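subagent[fold] <- orchestrator: predict structure for attached chain, return tokens only, no commentary.
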Amino acid sequence: MISFIICLALLIGGYFAYGKVVENTFAPDDRETPAVKINDGVDYVVLPQWKLFLVQLLNIAGLGPIFGALQGALWGPIVFLWITFGTLLAGGVHDFFSGMMSERNNGESISEIAGIYLGGVMKNVMRVFSVVLLVMVGTVFAVGPAGLIVTLFKNNGTEGILATTLFWLIIILVYYFIATFLSIDKIIGKVYPIFGICLIVMAVGVAIGIFVNPDYTIPEIWANFGSMHPKGTPIWSFMFITVACGAISGFHATQSPLMARCLKSERQGRFVFYGAMVCEGVIALIWAAAGCALYEVSGGLNTGLQDVLANGQSAAIYDVCAKTMGGIGIALAMLGVIACPITSGDTAFRSARLVLADWLKMDQGSYKNRLILCIPVLGVGAVLGIGNALGFIDYTIIWRYFSWTNQTLAMIVLWAASMYLFYDKKNYWITAVPATFMSAVSATYFVAAPECLNLSTAVAYPVGVIAAALFLGIFLYSIKKRNVRPQYDTLKK
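subagent[fold] -> orchestrator:
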């Protein structure tokens, strides 16, 4: 339990210490923000700082730091180290710079930001990649909650239309359309803070439940410094891919521009972007600790947790909440497994609309232009979601690639941030080091993962190192040439 407390203290202290270093490196000032300068009443809307923080937290978190952390706990308490240092040195840096680079560039989407600092080819790649990824995330987070609602009704003996996935899927998709179409302060700005508070309360309740119950003991890192994974899955780089939200996640880069368009001052950036990521890290740390503390260990392996997860991640959340908080926990668990994915889904579709709007240079202040983008985006989501609900489309194969593409996106954003800092004559190593690390993670996983090349670690490990060194070499060569692109010269830094 001591190692858990140390990691928790490092996360909280790191926000004030390393977070300040990150902020000072970027050097926020008193320039007029996009929310004030543009203020279209739809996407560019000034929101209070506390709302910005809670909305950003829910945008980037949802159930990500819970699902990922429980899966990561299969490796044992060593996952605490990745959550702690990944959050402070990589994830927080990634989220802060993705938000603040957007802030400095009129709130543009991450695909446009990547193009400014990494070139036109990368811009187009990121445009297509972002839209496909966001629509996929939004659709999956519509189908999943619909299925969970149906399960709840059926378990209570309900029959008929209320016990059909298709009915609830349509209801959720209608909500998604409304949330995507309306101004950000109408639904998201009002509802998200409530769910964000619920997410925090659920994590605090789990932590208290562990500490007050003498039957639960959080194992120490130093006593279990190795893999406890029942299937023998290697720590490198599978654990670093599995625990994305709660350490570093490229999906966050698609969400940060939403809040970048709502900041009243650049000086709010550390609290909103870096702070929300640290909060997510704390949530992930607590749930990882629960996964390590609540279940039986056999032969040094987390077999008990594996058995619970075999019943589904939602069932695992239900079980943890019930064991640590009783009836209140069950209510929070049900809220979490239904509401949190929905809140990730609607902002995914909203982000897809904004990526397309930036791509096509379409002003979103008019109802007509929003409809032009909302209808096809939600239309594709509806076709895919209904097709999945009726058994015509299988997402499982596609979704297996999400973990890798997610961390690859994070890698690209960190390299873009490194170029930004170079052009701005700032310490680019603060982003280049985690970018190099994530390059090794992504390359190694791609070579070793069963859904990718499925080669042995004897091949994957050196390939990952070589790939990371190659990316770092390309970056250093690029900055040595100091070939500043004309479009950068026009930016208002």
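orchestrator: received. Logging for downstream: The chain has a mean pLDDT of 90. DSSP finds 21 helices and no strands in the chain.
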